[in-house]
Amino acid sequence: MNGEKILLGVSGGIAAYKACELVRRLRERGAEVQVVMTENATRFVTPATFQALSGRPVRTSLWDEAAEAAMGHIELARWADRIVIAPASAETMARLAHGHASDLLGTVCLATDRPVFLAPAMNHLMWRNAATTANVALLQSRGFRMLGPDRGEQACGETGEGRMMEPAAIVDALAKWPLRSDRLAGLRVLVNAGPTLEDIDPVRYIGNRSSGKMGFAVAEAAQLAGADVCLVAGPVNLPTPAGVRRIDIRSAAQLLAVMLAEAPGVDIVIASAAVADFRVREIAPQKIKRGPEGIHLDLVPNPDVLAEVARLQPKPFLVGFAAETENVLEYARRKLAKKNIDLIAANDVARPGCGFDANENALTLIGAESQWHFAQAGKFELARQLIDRIALCFRSRS
Ligand code: CTP
After folding, report:
1. Residue identifier of the C-alpha nearest atom 28 of ligand 1
2. Which stretch of DSSP H or E encloses residue 376?
3. In this predicted model, what pLDDT tens digit does every residue of 144-172 receive, in sequence order?
4. Distance spanning both ends of the chain, measured CA to CA
5. pLDDT surpasses 60 at 398
6. pLDDT tens column, 219-264
7. Are 367 and 393 in contact (CB under 8 A)?
8. Backbone torsions φ then ψ of 57, nearest 5 degrees
9. DSSP of 333-348, one letter per residue?
10. Distance 18 CA to ligand 1 centre (A)
């Protein structure tokens, strides 16, 4: 969002106070924010507040001669890379749906060809009202994009759907939007993610600390880049990214079977799963009883799933992950050669704030002849950068 010009429309509703935080968060991401308030919005928050937060004079009227002389409403519409209306009241959406140009915000929305995002905020009955539902459907059919609303407690004391999405979630949703590209268009991508769990008996298992967040972010980023994505997931507590086909597995043996079944015909395989390296030779059919002498587990190695996929002919373009706590790049390079893969993303899981279960990560992507470092960032942002690079490497492979 760095350098992006966002016109933030604020309409009349108690959630207008949350738009103050939204301005701050957008500016933190490097966006320029121009606030346009409806007259009703000024009854909830003063223009002075938004002026201080955005660092730009706030526009409230079509009839402000001085402001119009500085930047007319048509110029204002052209200035914006996109328009975000938060909160979008029932009244504002009704006017937008019917093309009213009776105030500055409505006029700017008519005079733009840029994407317009709406974050509705209203009482749950107003949101469910047939008139609002019809207006929203009309707006969506004309390309307006909806952000929320959320469910929860409302300012009126009732509970239901109609709360404005939280500013942080709005910013995240906006940050993802321009990431749609066609870098992987027409390609099939198979991603694995999360841990595998190896049962010891009906109640116990061997596991690891993988949360699956990085792999899910990679699957989402690949889908947004136009790929047809299948995600093979170990037991994790994460929602399936939109448009992604998901297959759940539990053990390394199940992962291997699914990967070998799915990989033929796939263009790119990205293996981020933290596969358990060992399993018990035999899973006990009944719960093992606790005794004073302790327990010895007879562990046998699991297959190397990625190395097995690398034996397929024709071989897909293969990207592995290397979770290391020391000698990160050296160990990762060895795995690249040993597993016969094209790229490996080396991940220092001992680094504070990164790695397993964290929301951020830092990676070095290593190929046979080059390497690229990706600085610490949110996992989705990192996944997006990784997918861009993987796409370039895939397209330029010999
Ligand atoms: N991998 C795999 N099957 C395994 C182990 C690992 O497919 N049995 C894949 C992972 O999905 C990852 C890459 O191989 O893409 C490297 O995984 P990692 O756990 O870092 O390495 P290991 O091969 O397990 O080596 P070590 O545990 O000794 O570091």
Report:
1. 277
2. strand 371-378
3. 889 999 998 888 788 889 999 999 999 99
4. 34
5. no
6. 999 998 999 999 999 999 988 887 899 999 999 999 999 999 999 9
7. yes
8. -60, 140
9. HHHHHHTT-SEEEEEE
10. 45
pLDDT in tens, 344-394: 999 888 777 776 777 778 899 999 999 999 987 778 778 988 999 999 999
**Class of the domain covering 5-179:** alpha beta
Backbone phi and psi for residue 333, each to the nearest 5 degrees, phi listed first: -60, -40
- Distance (angstroms) between ligand 1 centre and the Cα of 398 equals 26
At 352, the amino acid letter reads: P
Note the pLDDT tens digit of each residue in 82-101: 899 999 999 999 999 999 99
Picking from 320, 316, 315, the residue whose alpha carbon sits closest to that of residue 304 is: 320
The total of other beta-carbon atoms located within 10 Å of residue 84's CB is: 27
What is the spatial distance between Cα 304 and Cα 196, in angstroms, rounded to a whole number? Answer: 12
- Do the domains 188-397 and 5-179 match in fold? yes
Strand 299-301, strand 278-280: pairing: antiparallel
- The answer to whether the beta carbons of residues 390 and 191 sit under 8 Å apart is no
Active site residues: 156
85 lines ligand 1 (CB under 6 A): no
Per-residue pLDDT at 55: 97
- 255 Cβ inside 6 Å of ligand 1: no
Which ligand 1 atom is nearest residue 302's CA? Answer: 8
Superfamily of domain 188-397: CoaB-like (3.40.50.10300)
284 in Cβ contact with 307 (< 8 Å): no
Of 260, 274, 269, which Cα lies nearest the Cα of 342?
269
Q: Tell me which DSSP letter residue 134 carries.
A: H
Domain ranges of the chain: 5-179, 188-397
Distance in angstroms (rounded) separating the CA atoms of residues 277 and 299? 10
CA distance 44 to 62: 20
> Distance of alpha carbon 378 from its chain centroid, rounded?
9
Residue 212 alpha carbon to ligand 1 centre in Å: 14
What is the structure's pLDDT at 231?
98
The finding on whether 219 has its CB within 6 A of some atom of ligand 1 is no
Using a 6 Å cutoff on CB, does residue 18 contact ligand 1? Answer: no
